[in-house]
């Protein structure tokens, strides 16, 4: 059986202590590749046709492990929801429409990754969405 290469990329929630990479590696004896520091990417910056250093980090890791089956774990979107949601429109309906567009763009990017790198056997979109008191007041 070929061992999977686990690759994690995303915002701060893709690192310890939010995601237990080191514990998984030790407990399961798996190979992991995740950043010790991140550049706080957003869904917007990772979407199709966008440029962000984190996006380049994903591509670089996929190229590095292209001969192995990969489990790709991505965590993007928390910053969009917590910090930027209120900037996307004057009403909740406007903001939701904008967010829907960004999420569709992000998933188009994920489909492109899967098509370009057939060694991606498992893709996990890991999300941590904290409570946002602003939404209750809006």
What does this structure look like?
The chain is an alpha/beta fold and 138 residues long. It contains six helices and four strands. The protein has a four-stranded parallel β-sheet, sandwiched between helices. The longest helix has 25 residues, at 92-116. The chain starts with a strand and ends with a helix. The model has no long low-confidence stretch (mean pLDDT 78).
Assign a percent range to the helix content.
40-55%
Q: Can you give the mean pLDDT?
A: 78
Strand order of the largest sheet: 2-1-3-4
Judged by helices, strands and strand pairing, the structural class is alpha/beta
Shape: globular
Which band does the percent of strand residues land in?
15-25%
Helices, by number, come to 6
Number of strands: 4
**Low-pLDDT residue spans:** none
Task: State the end-to-end distance.
Answer: 53 Å
Helix-strand sequence:
EHEHHEHHEH
Largest sheet: 4 strands, parallel
Radius of gyration, taken over Cα atoms and rounded to an integer in Å: 16 Å
At a glance:
With 138 residues, this protein is α/β, with parallel strands linked by helices. It has helices at residues 21-28, 43-46, 53-64, 78-84, 92-116, 133-137, and strands spanning 5-10, 31-33, 70-75, 120-125.
Helices and strands in order, then pairings?
Elements (H helix, E strand, L loop, with lengths): L4 E6 L10 H8 L2 E3 L9 H4 L6 H12 L5 E6 L2 H7 L7 H25 L3 E6 L7 H5 L1
Parallel strand pairs: 1-2, 1-3, 3-4
Labels describing this entry:
single chain, alpha/beta, 4-stranded parallel β-sheet, globular, 44% helix, 138 residues
């Amino acid at each position: 059986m070929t061992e999977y290469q686990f690759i994690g990329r995303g915002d701060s929630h893709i690192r310890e202590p939010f995601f237990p990479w080191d514990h998984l590696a030790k407990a399961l004896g798996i190979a992991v590749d995740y950043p010790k520091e991140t550049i706080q990417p957003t869904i917007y910056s990772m979407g199709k046709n966008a440029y962000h250093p984190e996006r380049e980090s994903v591509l670089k890791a996929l190229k590095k492990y292209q001969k192995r089956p990969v489990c790709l774990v991505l965590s993007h979107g928390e910053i969009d929801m917590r910090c930027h949601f209120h900037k996307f429109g004057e009403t909740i309906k406007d903001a939701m429409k904008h967010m829907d567009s960004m999420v569709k763009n992000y998933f188009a990017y994920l489909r492109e990754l899967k098509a370009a790198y057939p060694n991606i056997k498992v893709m996990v979109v890991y999300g941590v969405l904290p409570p946002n008191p602003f939404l209750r007041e809006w």
